Amino acid sequence: MAESVIFEHAATSGTDFLMYTSDFCGYCNAAKRLFASKKLTCKEYNFNEHDGLRQAVVEATGHQTVPVIFDLRGDQVMFIGGFDETHAYLRQV
Prior knowledge:
Blueprint: H1 2-13, E1 17-21, H2 26-37, E2 42-46, H3 53-61, E3 68-71, E4 78-81, H4 83-92
Parallel strand pairs: 1-2
Antiparallel strand pairs: 1-3, 3-4
């Protein structure tokens, strides 16, 4: 059930990446700047604006901090992790 929310968001985003955030998150802002610097698009969902979304994403990924980032550019939705993982990932691709 929890994964279906992520797949639905991914299917309707129309962007390169999907990112779950929360208010006052420095790493979330850093991720947005990283995407902008690489001319990559990102759809953001803020946990503070969607009741129950945090629980669903944590259940699906096991990742308890923000941001929670997915690469949507391939054939399958790929969970990357947080900012540090995304920064390292984008250096490799």
